[in-house]
Amino acid sequence: MTEDLLDIGKYVESNLSEDIQVSSKLEGDMLVLTTNAENVIVLLAFLRDDARCQFKQLIDLTAIDYPEREKRFEVVYNLLSIRYNNRIVVKVNVAEGELVPTVTGVFSAADWYEREVWDMYGVFFANHPDLRRILSDYGFSGHPQRKDFPLSGYVQVKYDEEKKRVVYEPVKLDQEFRTFDFASPWEGTQYVLPGDEKAEA
Asked: At what angle do helices 40-49 and 2-15 cross, to 10 degrees?
C-alpha cells in the first residue's frame, strides 16, 4: 500500500508542469503532498480528474496553527479516491494575511469547510462565494482556534430571559473551585451521609 502511495506521489510530481511546485513524502501510512497557495487549485483539479489518481471526494479541509513559523498556518485538504481506495493529504503553508484561493470550483464541499477555517483561524480564501463566520457570532472578535487566542477577556453572547433578547456580556467563569470526594460508596466515606443514622439504629 505504501509503495502504491509513493508511486502516486512520484507520478503527480512528474506529470504537473515545472512551474507548479509539489513535494511528496510519506508520513506514517499517508501520502502528503505540499504545495504553495497559488498552485493548490491546479493540484487538486489534477488529483480529482487524472485517471490514475481519481481523488474525487474532499473528506475534510482544516488548518493547523504554528505561531512560531514564518508561514504560520498549514491548510490541510484530506482527499479520498473511492475507485482505488486511497487517501491523500495536501498541505499548503500560509503566512498570516496571505490569501488562499478558494477550491469551491473544484470541490463544492469546500464551501463550509473554508468558512469554518476562516472563522476559527482567520485564513482568508480569495473568491469564496460566501466567506463569513459559521460557528461564532458575527460580532465576535478574534479567531478562537489560534494558539494565542486568550481564554477569557472577550464578550459572550447569551439570551437574557429578563430582557427577552440576546445580550453581550464579558466572559465569566461560572464554575467555582470545589473539592469533591470521589471515594467509592462501597469503601465508605469519612463523614456521615444523610440516611446513615437509620442504618445504625
From this structure: 120
* Structural domain total, the chain: 1
Q: In this structure, what CATH number is given to the domain that contains residue 108? A: 3.30.460.80
Give the count of beta carbons closer than 10 Å to the beta carbon of residue 155: 14
Task: Kindly state the average pLDDT of the residues 168-190.
Answer: 60
| pLDDT exceeds cutoff 70 at 4 | yes
**pTM of the prediction?**
0.75
Cα Rg of the chain (Å, integer): 25
Question: What is the residue range of 63's domain?
Answer: 2-136
Cell of 92: 499548503
Q: Is 184 a residue whose pLDDT tops 90? A: no
pLDDT at 137: 79
Residue 158: inside a domain: no
Element (H, E) at 169: strand 165-170
